[in-house]
Amino acid sequence: MPQADEHASAARFISLDGIDGGGKSSQIAALVDWLRSTGREVVACRDPGSTAAGDAIRGILLDRGELSIDPTTEMLLYMAARAQLVAELIRPALARGAWVVSDRYLLANVVYQGHAGGLDPDTIRAVGGIATGGLTADLVIVLDIDLETASRRLARPLDRLESRGDAYRQRLRDGYHAEAARDPARIRLVDASAEMATVADRIRTIVESRFPELK
């Protein structure tokens, strides 16, 4: 019978990120379905969320009211939710050899509160290392999309972060580009303006390239 470390060696951790309107939910569902079709156990989660504590914190962070939150407070709330997510769901899944696909992870804080929010990205990375115990995603796929197309796709009430305006959202997009340039082997930009099936194919190609055992 395989030992625990043999299971863990087969585990992979992928996160999808990007500005809202890029189609993350649909692409995560497609990626998870494809990975499961290969016979692997796949655990899907969202950050913040997917735990009782994380969902409670998510309710504060994405409140549609007039709640005012300082950028540092905002970042630390995300980190608290993430620490619980890692401890309760992600690490146990990886330890038993499952693949994890997360809707956002640490990169989102680096971009939202760092590049767009004015905090130091390196400080956020350091705090993230503490919150996650050093656990990073093996692959981060950023769904890149222009603001006009993204806005057309957001046919629902905007949450607290989405309603900050186009200048903020442009800083977000620029931040994702900067982070991808900083770590191009691990953070990959995907043009998300195309049809869903085309974007899914692009993501699959990147995932297969990063993890040859899938071919």
Please provide a brief summary of the model:
With 215 residues, this protein is α/β, with parallel strands linked by helices.
Q: How many alpha or pi helices? A: 9
Main beta-sheet strand count, sense and barrel state: 5 strands, parallel
Mean pLDDT rating: 90
CATH level 3 topology: Rossmann fold
Fold and architecture overview:
- The protein is an alpha/beta fold.
- The chain has a single domain (4-208), classed as Rossmann fold (3-Layer(aba) Sandwich).
- It has 9 helices and 5 strands.
- It has helices at 4-9, 24-37, 52-61, 71-95, 106-115, 121-132, 147-153, 166-182, 196-210, and strands at residues 13-17, 42-46, 99-103, 139-144, 187-191.
- It has a 5-stranded parallel β-sheet, with helices on both faces.
- Helix 4 (71-95) packs across helix 6, helix 5 (106-115) packs antiparallel against helix 6 and helix 5 packs across helix 8.
- The longest helix has 25 residues, at 71-95.
- The protein is globular, with a radius of gyration of 17 Å.
- The two termini are 25 Å apart.
- The model is unreliable at 1-7 (pLDDT under 50).
